Amino acid sequence: MTIENKVVVITGASSGIGETTAKLLAEKGAKLVLAARRADKLQKIVDSIQSENGDATYIATDVTQIEDNQQLVEHAISTYGKIDVIFLNAGLMPNSPLSKLKSDEWNQMVDVNIKGVLNGIEAVLPKFISQKSGHVITTSSVAGLKAYPGGAVYGATKWAVRDLMEVLRMESAQEGNNIRTATIYPAAIETELTDRITDKDTAKGTEQMYDQYQISPYSIANIVAFAIDQPEDVNINEFTVGPTSQPW
Ligand SMILES: NC(=O)c1ccc[n+]([C@@H]2O[C@H](COP(=O)([O-])OP(=O)(O)OC[C@H]3O[C@@H](n4cnc5c(N)ncnc54)[C@H](OP(=O)(O)O)[C@@H]3O)[C@@H](O)[C@H]2O)c1
Question: Ligand 1 center to residue 126 CA distance, Å?
Answer without folding.
Answer: 25
